[in-house]
Amino acid sequence: MSAEPRLLVRQVRGMAGRPWTQRLVLKGLGLRGPGSEVVVDNARAIRGMIRKVLHMVTVAEVADVAASTAAAPAPRKSPSAKAPLAKAPAAPKAAKAAAAKAPAAKAAAAKAPAAKSSSAKPGAEKVKVAGDPAKKVKS
User: Fold this and answer.
1) Strand, helix or coil at 7?
2) Listing from the earlier edge strand, what are the strands of the sheet with 57-62?
3) pLDDT score of 111 more than 80
4) Cα(114)–Cα(130) distance, rounded to whole angstroms?
5) N- or C-end of the chain: fewer Cβ atoms within 10 A?
6) Which of 55, 74, 63 is nearest to 8 (CA)?
7) CA-to-CA distance for 101 and 95, rounded, in angstroms?
8) Of residues 81 and 57, more confidently modeled
9) Bridge partners (DSSP) listed for residue 40
10) How far apart are CA 125 and CA 22, in angstroms?
11) Which residues does residue 10 pair with via DSSP β-bridges, in sequence order?
């Protein structure tokens, strides 16, 4: 590890109403919202990124990473990370097979009219719409 000090960057203002370029800079620094903080290298490119969003962050020099992580609070875990969700019991195979056959779907397919061939003239046949007997639609 280098002897060069690192930078502790803490976001103090939100991204709402800011230009998209500033949002991308905050994302590139690893900041996710007000109160989040990261320790980054003291490189020229990083300092340039910080300069673009200096009005939204605070910066402090840190001697080493171990000291900065001890001072910073531990990240909170999301409630979903506490315990994995239990899987729903699998349906019996017989029920799945019966659902796959679906006799009602076969009957509906048998009653459906055959597809019209593309050789017929468009507008040659008009069909009435079920809701309005006066309205006619091309099929």
Assistant:
1) strand
2) 37-40, 6-11, 57-62
3) no
4) 19
5) N
6) 63
7) 10
8) 57
9) 7
10) 60
11) 37, 58
Interior/surface letters 3-27, b for 16+ CB within 10 angstroms, e for the rest: eeebbbbebeeebeeeeeeeeebbe
In tens, the pLDDT along 75-89 reads 555 555 555 556 666
Token pair for 21: 């370029």
What is the average per-residue pLDDT within 70-77? 55
Q: Which amino acid is at 84?
A: P
- One-letter amino acid at 9 equals V
Alpha carbons 129 and 137: distance in angstroms, whole number = 7
Asked if the model's pLDDT at residue 134 lies above 90, the reply is no
Nearest to 25 by CA among 15, 37, 12: 15
Minimal CA–CA distance to 62: which of 54, 74, 52, 72?
A: 72
Q: Which long-range contacts (CB under 8 A, 24 or more apart) does 62-71 make?
A: 62/5, 62/6, 62/7, 62/8, 63/5, 64/1, 64/6, 65/1, 65/6, 65/39, 68/6, 68/8, 68/39, 69/39
pLDDT band, very low/low/confident/very high, at 46 (cuts 50, 70, 90): very high
